[in-house]
User: What shape does this take?
Amino acid sequence: MKYNILLVDDDIRDVAVIEELLNRRMNCKSTVVNNGEQAIDMLNASTTGHFDLVLLDLSMPDVNGLDVLKAVKPTNPELPVIVRTGFDDVEMAV
Assistant: This one.
């Protein structure tokens, strides 16, 4: 079974590494968006299809990861989301 993963990240280097792992090594299908607004639109659109998981960057230039979560969780409460960040901030992680 191929998992359908939405990757939300604005860093092209991170996207390249993660896609390599997901698509080639883990046999997953990934869809990439590079900002929070696109992620919200994609997750709320009924024609987008089903995602099994969201890999979400916390820090993005337009809408941060926490705001993306607030926008999509009411309509997608069962969707697993892994929030990633490059910042070493324990308070934010909690």
